[in-house]
Write a structure and sequence with these properties.
The chain is largely without helices or strands. The chain has a domain of 40 residues. The protein is 12% helix and 6% strand. The chain has a two-stranded antiparallel sheet with strand order 1-2. The longest helix is centred in the middle third of the chain and has 8 residues. The relative contact order is 0.08.
Amino acid sequence: MLAHLDLPVVRLIRVAFGPFYLGEIERGDIDEVPAQALDNLLGLKVPRKAGWAKPQPRPRQHKRPRR
């Protein structure tokens, strides 16, 4: 695309790999993808850890009849 505009590409910098933003990772470094981020990406339901509070169900609101 840039060659079409007669602009040479001197250097490319990867800032993301798919949905993962690379941030300040230095060349040659590795960083583990957090399990929760991977589960969210794949749409997996993860069981809650023991001791976590369960969310309380919302009270049902009665709908008013339409006129």
